[in-house]
C-alpha cells in the first residue's frame, strides 16, 4: 500500500511535463476535489453522520476568500490581505458555520442532521441571488487574475498537489489519533460509546468542525485556482458527486475515497463530458453520474470497497 | 390579516397533502424519501401533458400513473437497499436529480401551469378569493379526511397501522410487510402528485420545483414531529401562514429562508416537534 502511494505520487509529480495543458489543469482541480471528498468522509465515514450540506462549507470558504480579496463588493475598505491568509480565514469561517449547525443538529439522534443539511445549500443559493450585487448571483464573479494561486499553470498544479497531500496527511493523523478511534466507536454503536464514557456530542461536533475546516480551505483554494467563484460550489450536483466518490471508494477507508474521487471527477469532466459532446446530446453530463450512482447503490449497497474486501477474504 | 389567514389555509392545504404522504412513508417504513418532491412535479407535468386529450379528467390518470411510479420506485430502488439507511437517502436523492435533469432536457427551464378548474371570485368577509382556490381547499380537505378514514376503517389501512407500530409482529400475524410498504409508497406518491396538480393551478411548476417543495416538506415534518401524520397536517397550515405572511409583507423569495428559520427554531426549542414522539 505504501509503495503504491509513493509510486502514484512520483507519477503525479512528473506528469505535467508529459501531458497536455488541459489535462494538467483538470488534474489540479481533481486534487482539490479529493479534499472535498476526504473531508466529507471524515464526518460520514468515520463519525457516521450524514451531512448532505457539505457544499455549504465549500461555498462559505470560497465566498469568504473571494469577498476578502474584493472588499469593494462588500462596500468596506480593507488593507490588501495575502491570499494564504484569506484562504485560512475561509476555512475558519466554515468552521464557525459548521459549529453552529452541528451544535443544533448533532445533539439530536436520527435523521435531523440529514434533513437540515439537505436544505442548507438551497437556502444559501437563494441568499446569493437575493444579494446578487454582493455575491454576483447566478453567475458568480471573478476574483481577478492577480489573485491566482500562481502565475503559471504548472505552479498552480504543484500548489494544488501539495495542498492535497497536506490535507491527506492531516486527515490520516486525525484518524489514527485518539479522536479518530473515539469517532469509530461512535459510528459503530452510539449508545455503547456513550456508556463507556465518551462524550458523543462533543466528539461528533469536533469531527464536524474539522470536516468543515478542510472543506472551507478546499473551497477557498478552488476559487484561487480557477479565479472565479459561483453558486455551483454550493450546489446539489457537486454534493452528489462528492458522495458518489466516497461511496464508490468505500466510506471510512481514507484511501478508498481518494481513489474514488480521482475516478469520478476525471470520468465526469473527461469521459462523460466527451460522450455528451460527441453524441451532441442535449443533456447535462451529470445525468450519467446519477444513473451510475443508482446502479452502484443497487448492486452493492454496502459499498464497493466492502464488497471487494469480502470477495478477497 | 384576514387575507393572510384565508390564503394561508389554501396553500397550507396543499402542503398538508404533500407532507401527510411524506410522513406516512417515514412513519410506516422509516424511509426518508428525497424524491417526494419529484412525485409532486411529475404529477403536475403528467396532468398538463394529458390535458389536451382528456381535459380536467387528466387529473385522474395522472394521479394513478404517479401512484404506480411510486410503487415501482419502492420495489425497484428502495426495497433492495432498505437495510442501509444512508443508501435509501442517496438513491432517492439521485433519482430526484435524475428526473430533474430529464425534465429539464425535455421541457427546458420554463414554468408551466394547469388550467383552472373553475373561474370567478367569491368574497369572504370582504376578501376576494378566486373560486378555484376554494375548490382546491375543498378537494384537499376531502382527500385528507378520506385518507384518515381509509387508514382507520379499511383492512388495508389497518395493515398499514399495524406495520407502523410493530413490523415484526405484523409479519407474525401474516401481513405481507413488503406489500404494505409498496402500497404506502403508492398512496404517498398519489397524494404528492395531486398536490402538484393543485399547486400548478395556482402557481406554476418547473423542473426545479421538486427541491423547493422538499424544503417545505422537511420544514413541515420537523415542525410537526417526524412520523406523525396529524402533526404534519397541523404544521402544514402553520407553514402555509408563514409563507403567505412573508410573501405579502416582504418578498416571496424570503419564504424559503423563513421555512429554514422555523426548522432551526423548532430544533432548538422543541426537537421532537409539536406532536412528535421519542
Question: Could you list some keywords that capture this structure?
Answer:
heterodimer; A: 313 residues; mainly alpha; two-stranded antiparallel ribbon; 14 helices; 1% strand; globular; B: 278 residues; 2 strands
Largest interface: A-B, 41 and 40 residues
Estimated helix fraction of chain A: over 70%
Task: Average the pLDDT over all residues of chain B and give the rounded result.
Answer: 85
- Approximate shape of chain B: globular
- Beta-strand portion of chain B reads under 5%
- Along the chain, the helix and strand elements of chain B come as HHHHEEHHHHHHH
Describe this structure in words.
The complex is a heterodimer of chains A (313) and B (278). Chain A is an all-alpha fold and 313 residues long. Chain A has a domain at 22-235. In chain A, 73% of the residues lie in helices and 1% in strands. Chain A contains 14 helices and two strands. Chain A has helices spanning 2-14, 21-46, 54-69, 83-105, 112-130, 132-135, 153-176, 178-188, 190-195, 200-226, 236-249, 255-278, 286-299, 304-312, and strands at 141-142, 228-229. Chain A has a two-stranded antiparallel ribbon with strand order 1-2. The radius of gyration of chain A is 19 Å and the shape is globular. The two termini of chain A are 17 Å apart. Chain B is mainly alpha-helical. Chain B has a domain at 17-206. Helix content of chain B is 75%, strand content 3%. Chain B has eleven helices and two strands, in the order H-H-H-H-E-E-H-H-H-H-H-H-H. Chain B has a two-stranded antiparallel sheet with strand order 1-2. The radius of gyration of chain B is 18 Å and the shape is globular. Chain B starts with a helix and ends in a 9-residue tail after the last helix. The chains are: A mainly alpha (313), B mainly alpha (278). The A-B interface holds A 44, 50, 52, 104-105, 107-108, 110-112, 114-116, 118-120, 122-123, 126-127, 129-130, 236-237, 240, 243, 247, 251, 282-284, 286-287, 290-291, 293-294, 297-298, 301-302 and B 32, 34, 77, 80-81, 83-84, 86-87, 89-91, 93-95, 97-98, 101-102, 104-105, 211-212, 214-215, 218-219, 221-222, 226, 253-254, 256-257, 260, 263-264, 267-268, 271.
Amino acid at each position: 500500500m505504501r509503495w503504491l502511494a509513493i509510486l502514484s505520487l512520483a507519477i503525479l509529480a512528473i506528469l505535467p511535463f508529459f501531458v497536455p495543458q488541459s489535462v494538467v489543469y483538470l488534474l489540479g482541480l481533481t486534487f482539490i476535489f479529493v479534499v472535498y471528498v476526504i473531508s466529507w468522509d471524515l464526518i460520514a465515514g468515520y463519525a457516521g453522520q450524514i451531512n448532505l450540506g457539505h457544499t455549504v462549507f465549500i461555498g462559505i470558504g470560497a465566498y469568504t476568500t473571494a469577498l476578502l480579496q474584493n472588499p469593494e463588493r462588500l462596500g468596506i475598505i480593507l488593507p490588501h490581505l495575502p491570499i494564504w491568509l484569506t484562504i485560512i480565514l475561509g476555512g475558519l469561517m466554515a468552521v464557525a458555520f459548521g459549529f453552529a449547525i452541528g451544535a443544533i443538529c448533532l445533539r439530536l439522534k436520527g435523521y435531523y442532521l440529514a434533513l437540515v443539511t439537505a436544505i442548507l445549500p438551497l437556502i444559501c443559493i437563494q441568499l446569493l441571488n437575493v444579494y446578487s450585487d454582493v455575491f454576483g448571483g447566478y453567475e458568480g464573479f471573478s476574483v481577478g487574475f492577480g489573485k491566482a494561486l500562481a502565475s503559471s499553470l504548472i505552479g498552480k498544479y504543484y500548489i494544488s498537489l501539495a495542498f492535497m497531500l497536506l490535507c491527506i496527511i492531516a486527515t490520516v493523523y486525525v484518524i489514527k489519533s485518539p479522536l479518530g478511534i473515539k469517532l469509530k466507536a461512535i459510528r459503530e454503536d452510539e449508545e455503547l460509546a456513550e456508556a463507556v464514557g465518551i462524550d458523543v456530542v462533543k466528539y461528533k461536533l469536533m469531527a464536524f468542525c474539522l470536516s468543515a475546516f478542510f472543506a472551507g480551505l478546499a473551497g477557498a483554494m478552488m476559487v484561487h485556482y480557477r479565479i472565479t467563484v459561483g453558486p455551483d460550489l454550493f450546489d446539489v450536483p457537486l454534493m452528489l458527486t462528492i458522495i458518489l466518490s466516497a461511496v464508490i471508494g468505500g466510506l471510512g477507508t481514507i484511501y478508498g475515497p481518494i481513489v474514488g474521487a480521482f475516478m469520478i471527477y476525471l470520468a465526469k469532466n473527461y469521459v462523460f463530458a466527451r460522450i455528451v459532446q460527441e453524441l451532441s446530446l442535449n443533456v447535462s453530463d451529470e445525468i450519467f453520474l446519477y444513473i451510475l450512482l443508482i446502479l452502484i447503490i443497487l448492486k452493492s449497497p454496502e459499498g464497493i470497497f466492502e464488497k471487494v474486501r469480502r470477495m478477497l477474504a | 390579516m384576514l387575507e393572510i389567514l384565508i390564503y394561508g389555509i389554501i396553500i397550507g392545504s396543499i402542503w398538508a397533502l404533500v407532507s401527510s404522504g411524506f410522513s406516512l412513508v417515514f412513519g410506516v417504513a422509516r424511509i426518508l424519501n428525497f424524491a417526494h418532491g419529484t412525485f409532486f412535479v411529475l404529477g403536475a407535468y403528467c396532468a398538463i401533458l394529458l390535458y389536451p386529450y382528456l381535459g380536467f379528467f387528466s387529473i385522474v390518470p395522472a394521479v394513478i400513473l404517479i401512484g404506480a411510479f411510486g410503487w415501482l420506485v419502492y420495489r425497484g430502488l428502495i426495497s433492495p437497499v432498505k437495510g442501509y439507511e444512508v443508501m435509501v437517502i442517496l438513491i432517492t436523492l439521485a433519482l430526484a436529480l435524475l428526473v430533474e435533469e430529464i425534465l429539464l432536457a425535455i421541457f427546458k427551464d420554463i414554468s408551466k401551469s394547469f388550467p383552472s378548474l373553475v373561474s370567478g371570485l367569491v368574497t369572504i368577509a370582504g376578501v376576494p378569493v378566486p373560486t378555484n382556490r376554494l375548490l382546491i381547499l375543498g378537494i384537499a380537505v376531502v382527500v385528507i379526511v378520506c385518507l384518515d378514514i381509509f387508514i382507520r376503517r379499511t383492512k388495508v389501512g389497518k395493515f398499514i397501522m399495524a406495520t407502523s407500530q410493530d413490523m415484526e409482529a405484523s409479519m407474525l400475524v401474516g401481513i405481507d410487510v413488503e406489500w404494505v410498504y409498496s402500497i404506502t409508497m403508492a398512496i404517498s406518491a398519489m397524494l404528492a402528485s395531486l398536490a402538484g396538480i393543485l399547486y400548478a393551478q395556482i402557481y406554476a411548476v418547473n423542473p426545479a420545483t421538486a427541491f423547493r417543495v422538499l424544503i417545505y416538506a422537511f420544514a413541515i415534518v420537523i415542525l410537526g414531529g417526524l412520523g406523525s401524520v396529524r402533526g404534519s397536517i397541523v404544521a402544514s397550515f402553520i407553514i402555509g401562514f408563514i409563507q403567505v405572511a412573508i410573501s405579502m409583507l416582504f418578498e416571496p423569495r424570503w419564504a424559503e429562508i423563513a421555512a429554514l428559520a422555523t426548522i432551526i427554531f423548532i430544533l432548538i426549542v422543541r426537537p421532537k416537534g409539536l406532536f412528535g414522539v421519542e
